[in-house]
Design goal:
heterotrimer; A mainly alpha (263); B alpha+beta (350); C alpha/beta (240); A: 263 residues; mainly alpha; MetI-like fold; 13 helices; globular; C: 240 residues; alpha/beta; D-Maltodextrin-Binding Protein, domain 2; 2 domains; nine-stranded mixed beta sheet; 8 helices; 38% helix
């Protein structure tokens, strides 16, 4: 089959190149700053290992939790009519516009040891979220959850309702309809929702530092380690940034090849 | 054994209110016809239970499935209605087999039952194909199998022929005719196509602007059409004859049909607009050409309908200008031509 | 490095467009912990010198040092630690030397009412308490380390925050039982109490006149004057 390459408008080509350059220049700048000679010793240092482990654990847990609650939230928003829905949607999406540090402070005042919910929780169970990996998970889930909700809700609105009607009249329960028909049909949106949610959680800084604190080996994620290192050891900061870039690119490219193109 | 009873009104969107009443006995098939936006698909949706009604009642068999006054609403999954949706709505990510298995009530026997139904619909070879890769005709076979495999007590089919190309229509029409013949519950078929309605259904429900304009058997509707749409719709010529190697012979007439592969007793339909009228003998093929007497002429703004006398009694439909060109008036004679490809034949139901 | 120069140039150009300071404004880069006090100093100075305009650029000491090394136009630089000042002076020519204009001391910050009954630095070894300090690279973290070293305490810290404000917020919320903060952080506004450390670690604040314009000279003189020192005293800063 002969393929004729489509020519995009020249204006778009120029603007697109400028846009890509806008993102690429800082990454290239980062590469120029990498102290290649010290790369090995920095990569194998305890700080980087600890931070990478905590970042991966927290971001993956956050993605799992965001899936567990974000998908039902999106379902209710897309499929159920109720009063105050616009308000609920705005509330769920609030972390998108809220400065993360403010979100972290709000978490502190609500889920902290003396907080509205955290206080009774501590008194009853002795569980303290701040200064623990669970605090990190809570903080990064808070800021990344809207990405899952947005992805799924958008896809549900775009899905022809007749497929769900068809499943219902074939005798399927709503849960079976969702798992067997709806979810498989919005799989590409779900996968990109996973990617966005995970990426946001992996790069989270403000809410984490405000809610969970910063201690190497316990709550210090990659972004926190980079931030501290920026003030003391620039080389280490750059290398850790590079690690984040590489991990993120690997994950996003892998997802793209498997799902986005096919979608 | 009380079939399907619909006597309901509901608001579809905005302030468009539908008010629909009709009944379908068990073992009977009703063709629901009417212009776009008349409320046909919406009626299918309330019977299926996808949308609730605002007042009135819907009954299937002996059970009430929707009755706002007494607070009864049976969810779609519990209505046991088999639906062939517009464009089929097969689950595109599943194979044909999985689609059919989805609705089988007995999960342990699902695969065996699904394969049986696919085989009865002539679709065994499609079992492992993804639904999104099926052609229009294949899709309809699988959709029929899926609806029937759910062991429904009523069948609803929303424009089952709309997505088919012309070549797939005759075989799916024949398949559907035999399926409906075997099905012993009430069935409703929404269609735009008068020939299909006439060939498949026992009676008609004509919808217009959210209401039932007219209902009854074909003969009843034809004798007193309630609107121009209805008269146009039921004005199709229907003839009984015997088919033999492409030629259908009736009482004092014979017509040649294209692509005829049935023989024996057949019902043939010819749309009035497919009947050509000429003031002198048309040149070209001599098949299906004869001279006839004009019995009557009725003219409206857009069409002229012309009744042609026997032995082959037909109605022709032409533009008013066309009628003027042949100086059509009762008593005059005219040359008639029907293309072989415009003659549709279906094996007659015993 | 070429690329770096380009990036810095672009950033500075954009920054220059962004803040439309009058050309004759005197730019004072000031450490975050000094911010509130310098806003008062700015008002008092502009009252006394109506023809002069002071522009405050408030950020962390380390960041301010980076900015001036990268070529940011600054007339006066006031920082929270000598180390950052030394770095800045190492690559920028100034008209005058760095002068210590204020001091601060370190205290044990506790939530109002001191619920965990923290009385001394030795409580920082108690693992059941939630304890914090600044991270080592920031000045308050360096001072905290000096405090612990002087007292011979190995602290069991739960967090090392990137700035002292984060510690104050977590003390205020009751999530931290104690943290090493500046004496100036303990005030009616911050909602935390202070407990003396018992060791003598003094934070010294250096100021330097970078450009030596008449206004910058006069502003530095004002900070060092009795009136300026009195304003700093109001915010809890000690004499140099």
């Amino acid at each position: 089959m002969r393929r004729v390459r489509q020519r995009p408008p020249m204006l778009f080509v120029v603007l697109a190149i400028l846009g890509v350059a806008f993102v690429a220049v800082p990454v290239v700048g980062l590469l120029f700053e990498v102290p290649w000679g010290d790369l090995g010793s920095i990569l194998t240092s305890e700080i980087v290992g600890d931070a990478l482990r905590i970042s991966l654990v927290a971001s993956l847990l956050a993605t799992a939790i965001a899936t567990l609650v974000g998908v039902p939230i999106a379902y209710v928003l897309a499929r159920v009519e109720f009063r105050g829905k616009a308000l609920v949607r705005a509330l769920v999406l609030l972390p998108l516009v809220l400065p993360p540090v403010v979100g972290g402070a709000a978490l502190l005042f609500s889920l902290g040891r003396r907080g509205l919910v955290g206080g009774p929780l501590y008194d009853a169970t002795g569980l303290v979220l701040p200064f623990s990996i669970w605090g990190v998970v809570v903080a990064v889930t808070f800021v990344s959850l809207p990405f899952m909700v947005l992805s799924i809700e958008g896809a549900l609105h775009g899905l022809d309702r007749r497929f769900e009607s068809a499943a219902a009249s074939l005798g399927a329960t709503q849960l079976r309809t969702f798992m067997r028909v709806t979810m498989p049909m919005i799989m590409p949106a779900f996968i990109s929702g996973l990617a966005l949610t995970w990426a946001r959680a992996f790069g989270e800084f403000g809410a984490t530092v405000a809610f969970a604190g910063n201690l190497q080996g316990r709550t210090q994620t990659m972004p926190l380690a980079v931030f501290v290192a920026l003030e003391s050891d620039r080389g280490a900061a750059v290398v850790m940034s590079l690690v984040m870039v590489v991990v993120a690119v690997i994950v996003l490219v892998a997802l793209r090849d498997r799902w986005w193109v096919r979608a | 054994m009380s079939g399907l009873v619909v006597d309901a009104s509901w608001v579809r969107s905005g302030d468009f209110t539908l008010d629909v009443g009709f009944a379908v006995p068990d073992d009977a098939t009703v063709a629901m016809v009417g212009p776009n936006g008349a409320g046909k698909s919406s009626t299918i949706r309330v019977i299926a239970g996808v949308e609730p009604i605002d007042s009135g009642v819907i009954k299937i068999g002996d059970s009430v499935v929707d009755d706002p006054a007494s607070g009864v609403f049976v969810s779609p999954r519990d209505r046991r209605i088999g639906v062939v949706w517009q464009d089929a709505a097969l689950f595109p990510h599943m194979t044909a087999l999985r689609n059919v298995m989805f609705g089988v009530p007995d999960r342990s026997a699902a695969e065996a039952r699904a394969r049986q139904w696919l085989e009865r619909m002539g679709a065994s070879s499609l079992a492992d194909r993804r639904a999104s890769t099926l052609s229009g005709g294949e899709t309809q076979r699988v959709a029929l199998a899926r609806a029937l495999a759910s062991e429904p007590s009523a069948l609803l089919l929303d424009e089952p022929f709309a997505a088919l190309d012309a070549s797939a229509r005759p075989e799916i029409r024949a398949l559907l005719a035999s399926v409906l013949d075997e099905f012993d519950g009430p069935a409703v078929v929404v269609t735009h196509d008068s020939e299909e309605a006439i060939l498949i259904a026992d009676s008609l429900v004509v919808m217009e602007a959210g209401r039932v304009l007219q209902s009854g058997s074909l003969a009843e509707v034809r004798s007193r059409p309630a609107s121009e749409y209805v008269s146009h719709f039921v004005g199709v010529n229907i003839l009984q004859g015997v088919a033999e190697s492409g030629v259908i012979t009736g009482d004092g007439w014979a017509l040649t049909a294209a692509d005829m592969d049935t023989s024996g007793d057949v019902t043939i339909t010819i749309h009035p607009s497919a009947v050509g009228l000429f003031s002198s003998r048309p040149s070209g093929s001599a098949r299906n050409t004869w001279e006839a007497r004009i019995e009557w002429v009725t003219t409206t703004d857009n069409t002229a309908r012309i009744g042609l006398g026997g032995p082959l009694t037909l109605v022709a439909e032409v533009t008013p200008a066309g009628a003027a060109a042949i100086e059509a008036r009762p008593g005059s004679s005219v040359w008639v031509a029907v293309k072989a490809s415009e003659i549709h034949a279906t094996g007659r139901r015993p | 490095m070429g690329i770096r120069a380009i990036v810095v140039g672009v950033v500075l150009a954009v920054a220059g467009v962004g803040c439309s300071a009058p050309d004759d404004a005197t730019v004072v880069s000031v450490a975050a912990s000094l911010g509130p006090a310098f806003e008062e100093l700015q008002k008092a100075y502009e009252r006394a010198n109506p023809e002069s305009t002071i522009e405050l650029n408030i950020a962390g000491s380390v960041t301010l040092a980076e900015q001036i090394i990268a070529g940011a136009p600054v007339d006066v630089l006031a920082l929270a630690d000598m180390a950052s000042m030394d770095r800045a002076l190492g690559s920028v020519d100034t008209t005058g030397p760095a002068i210590t204009f204020a001091s601060n001391s370190m205290v044990i910050g506790v939530p109002r009412g001191n619920p965990a009954a923290v009385t001394s630095l030795s409580d920082f070894a108690r693992s059941e308490l939630f304890l914090g300090a600044c991270a080592i690279p920031v000045p308050c973290g360096v001072y905290a380390r000096q405090v612990f070293d002087a007292a011979g305490v190995v602290p069991d810290l739960d967090t090392q925050e990137a700035d002292v404000r984060a510690l104050v917020v977590k003390l205020d919320s009751g999530d931290l039982d104690a943290a090493i903060v500046y004496a100036t952080d303990v005030s009616a506004l911050s909602g935390i109490d202070g407990v003396a450390t018992g060791v003598d670690v003094i934070a010294e604040y250096p100021i330097v006149d970078v450009t030596g314009t008449p206004d910058s000279v006069r502003f530095v003189e004002f900070v060092l004057s009795a009136e300026g020192q009195s304003i700093l005293g109001d915010f809890g800063f000690g004499a140099p």
